[in-house]
Structure formats: C-alpha cells, structure tokens
UniProtKB/TrEMBL annotation:
SMART domains: BBOX (SM00336), RING (SM00184). Residues 195-237 form the B box-type domain. This is RING-type E3 ubiquitin transferase. GO terms for cellular component: acrosomal vesicle; cytoskeleton. Residues 344-401 form the COS domain. The gene is TRIM36.
Amino acid sequence: MEGDGSDSLVTIKNIERELICPACKELFTHPLILPCQHSICHKCVKELLLMLDDSFNDVGSDNSNQSSPRLRLPSPSMDKIDRISRPGWKRNSLTPRTTTFPCPGCEHDVDLGERGINGLFRNFTLETIVERYRQAARAATAIMCDLCKPPPQESTKSCMDCSASYCNECFKIYHPWGTVKAQHEYVGPTTNFRPKILMCPEHETERINMYCELCKRPVCHLCKLGGNHSNHRVTTMSSAYKTLKEKLSKDIDYLIGKESQVKSQISELNLLMKETECNGERAKEDAITHFEKLFEILEERKSSVLKAIDASKKLRLDKFQTQMEEYQGLLENNGLVGYAQEVLKETDQSCFVQTAKQLHLRIQKATESLKSFRPAAQTSFEDYVVNTSKQTELLGELSFFSSGVDVPEINEEQSKVYNNALINWHHPEKDKADSYVLEYRKINRDEEMLSWNEIEVCGTSKVISDLESNCNYAFRVRAYKGSICSPCSRELILHTPPAPVFSFLFDEKCGYNNEHLLLNLKRDHVESRAGFNLLLAAERIQVGYYTSLDYIIGDVGITKGKHFWAFRVEPYSYLVKVGVASSDKLQEWLRTPRDTVSPRYEQDSGHDSGSEDTCFDSSQPFTLVTIGMKKFFIPKSPTSNEPENRVLPMPTSIGVFLDYDKGKVGFYDMDHMKCLYERQVDCSHTMYPAFALMGSGGIQLEEPITAKYLEYQETM
C-alpha cells in the first residue's frame, strides 16, 4: 500500500505542468473554461479584461506601448476586481467594457459575448485535481475537523453535501444511520467543495443535462428550446459522457501502449540534442578558425601597408632635408655663398679660373632654383590610401558556406497519382547534380509519425508503386553533387485513389455503333461523330427529333470488391454520360431502338431536361452523371429538395469509385481526389463501366502509370 501511495504521489507531482495557469503561472484557482477550451483562473480573466480596458483608455496618452497589456500593464487593484465580482454589477467607469482578449494559452482572441465572465463554466474537474495535488504537496499539513470542540481533531473525511470536514466521531453524530444525511456523498479530507449539480450559466436555475455537439459545451433544456442552441444538434449528457470517456480512455490506452516507443523516441531526442550540442560547438570552432585566418591575413596586410608608408615617408623626408641644406648654403657666410666669396679673394688668375669655373656652374644652378622653387618631394600620401570598399562589401555579405547545389523543385502539374505515383521535378542547374534522392512517407494522424522512405534517382522523375489506397502521401526531393547535398524541396501532398485501379478497355463488340463512334486502335479513346447520317435522320422528321445516346462500355465486368478508374472528357464535348450499369440494364438499353426516345424521360439522365423532377428508386441498377460544355452536372437528390450548386466546372480528369459489396458509386475530381457525388446503386448483377455520347465529344481512359509510361513522358 505504501508503494501505491508513493506511485500516486509521484504521478500527481508529474502533472504539475498541466495544473499551472498560463496567465499567472501559478496553480489554478477557481479555473474557468474559455470558448477555446483552455482554462484560466477566475481572477486572471477579470484582470485581463480590466487591463485591456485600461489600455484602451490610456491609448491616447501612451501610444508607444505596443506590447500585450496583460504583460506590461500593472495589475488592477482588488477594489476594482471586487466591484465587478458582485452580483448584478453594471457597466461603469470601473467595469471592463471589453469582452474580447487573447487567450494566454493559445494566443487566439476569445470573445466572451454579452454575459462576459458569467457565461463561462467553472472547471470543477481541474479544480479537484489541483486540490488533490496541493494535498499531496502538503501531506504533512492536516485538515482539521470543522465541528469538533477546541482543540479540533484531524479530519478523516469531507462531506460534499455539507461542505464540511469531519473526524470519525463528528461524522457519525452529524450523519446518523437511517437519516437522509447518511446518504450524503463523502470523500477524503479536502478544502475544495463543489456543487453536486452543474447549473447553466445562461439559465441559473436550470441543471445542465445536454451537450451541444456544435459548440462543444454542456447546455440545459431551455438553451435547446429557445436559446442560442435551439438550431444546434444536441445529445444527452449520459451519451456525451460515455462517448468522450471512451475516446479519452482509448487515447490514454494508446499512449500507455506506446510507452516503450515514446521512451525510445525520448532517447533518440536526447541523442539528437547531444549531437546538436557537439555539432554546434564544432561549428563555432570552425567559424573561429576561419575568422582567425582572416585576422592573420589582415594583420599581414596591415604590416605590409604600414612598412610601405614608412619607407615612402623616410625617402621624402631625406629629399626635403637635402633640399633644405642646399638652400641653407645660399645664405651669406653659409655654405656655397661663403665659399664663393673666399674664391673671389684669389688674385692668381690661373688658380681662380681653375676653381671658379665649377663654382660658377653651381652658382648658376642655385640661381635658377631660386627663380623656380619646387619641393623635392610630395607631401600627400593619397597614393597610399587603402581601398577596402570591395572587401568591406564582401565581409558584410559573409555568411555560412553554401553547398553550391540548388534546391530542386517538384513539378506539381506533371506529378500525379493513379495506380502508382509519378513524381516529376526540375532542377535550375541540372548538370550540377550527380543524382537525386526522392523521399516519401504516408501521412496518418491516427498513428505515429512514419519515417521517410528514400529512393536514389539518376533522372528527374520517378514512378513509386505499392502505395496504400485512400491515403495521403508526402513527397520531397534533394540533389547530390558528390558528397554535397542540397536542402530538401518543398513537400508535395498527393492523395491516392480510394480503391485499387480497375484496368479495362472500351468494348468494340457489345453495343458499339461504328457509324457514330470512332474507337482508336488501343481502345482507350472513343470519339462521337455527329455526321451525315445524323443529318439524314433529322431531315426525315418534320415535327421534331431527339438525337439518341450512343453507348459504349468497358470490356471487363465487376462482380465483387472495390474498384476505381479514371478518364478525361474532351473539352469540346457537347454531352457525355459516365458511370456504371448492370448487365441486364445494358441489354435493355442496347436492344431498345432509341432514335425516337426523348432523353427527358430517361431515368437519371443527369442534365437539366427535367429528368431530375421525376421520383426514382434510390437504389437502381445504374448511375450515370452528365458532363458537357465544360461543366459537371450533379444529379438532384431523390430524397431532398434543398437547393444546392449542381453545376460545377468540369474536372481535368474524372474518377469513378465502385464499392460493389456495399452497393455504392462515387464520382471524383482526380486533381484533388475529392468526391463530387455519391449514391447507392443496385449491384445484384455484373456491373460495367458505362459511357454514352451525344453530339460531338470524346473520352480518353486514364493510362496506368508504369515505367514505360515514364520513359514515354521523358521522350515527350
């Protein structure tokens, strides 16, 4: 028993994160259920509304405050909260005028409506769990008996009807055997007492006894009779309780059953975190190394540039020094002039001439320099200005290393799914990629996330087989250049057909009219020719003439199982009817002369000739829908007269799904794998794909996707 109590305590402590209010970050106190189904403390809702109200009042004086009011504004005083908590409060300057605020849990705007806080349910279940957690957390603190004389004894149970706690003796005294009080509900010691009956916040005197399936909330019978839920679908509380409890139990059992998988995924996440930590540190070290190399290059270039500047400066200063010394020699009693004055004192003519000739040249040169003074060197160092604009721009664009391989893009128009999936992609730099890896996986919300399947591809398209029917699949591709890999492309989601693809060709024998219909050699394309014979037939009728439908069927019948096939109706087609028909119905159609039969009275003809106004059996041995003039006509429901959009744009490709065992046929838009129309059909006989044409028109059966199909597409 002690072990069980310890496990219970550990379980209670483990759910603490679920018991924290997203607004105040503390344990819930009187939690309320918001319309978004998140819970928040009663007090926190009032604070949020008052804060938002105050922010609207202060918006003129403080426009710089752009953050959330519930995070920035000071808490309102308790006096304000108390005023709006009193029954019958009315709007005034202290009451919140705002009923919309962002939910702290999901950040979506929540509108409380006219009743405001009074329209919210109190989450008693969460409140009980919080109280249980508090008791587990303060197990050493006992709850005392409320009825004992001082000193009170420790309570052993609490009565939910009396809202009081009792010791064993007091409980026996106040709940004597054989009285009504003996039937009261009691629990372990607690300070959390909740009402036994949940009352409607809209009609405070009425019990909650129904559940609105549209609003996902409990309601009373007055809400259903004339309130906001009068037109909503409701169910009994017991039914809702049973359904939700079964779903919750099933989900909990599923999670418990997947405990080993969750643990393995947690271990995998721990390894990924460690790997991320190591890779992050390694990336930092690599970045530091690269920057240090840049620093070394900059230091080397800096030293070289400074040396060049110093050398040029020294050379120029030396030139200036020499020039200055020469000019100083021109001064009297200085240098050259003084020397020349001494030479003039020479009286010996031969000696004077010998010395004066060279001296005269020097004097002439000095005289000329005085006439045209020019410094011996430049003072400007404009040739030594370091130009770093290009390098600065490059350093500003300094970023992480690019693989150099562009991301391939999946071509959504050329990619499709039928019996197999064909994925086609293009690469901006096709020659740069050595190969590609195509990844795909099934998307299934009910099961765990499935891992990606990988296929190495040399070209830019791939056929994938063995896909499950009626499932969503995600596809993506990445390119490889040697060992360098590009990022993955954007994912493409495709939905597989609802059943395996049924292979057949047009039957050239049964009912085929070669005067009106033209069938190609492969028997997968038929064309209706409104030719000379039709004109002759119309010329013989003076009063009026109804053209007939020319039928053609598939060469293989269906006697069981689920099957799907697809085809394209040529855009120029005037009237085409497609669907399924039983063998006996086809014999009736193909034997009856139809030259004078009006399609107006043909059952379920599917076009707006008035045929839908007639009542017919909901389960008949055929179903045909009408397609023509680039429109898809949905037949009128035999059991409903509700107006609906019965004329849709004609899909590029149309699919037919026949569930023989359940007697059901559906028509699909192949581009989105969306069901456009579905109805019951009598499958007591062999069923055939059936087609009918009137006037100009054509039908092309969808070609199965195979490796040969891929080769053909690539040559195209």
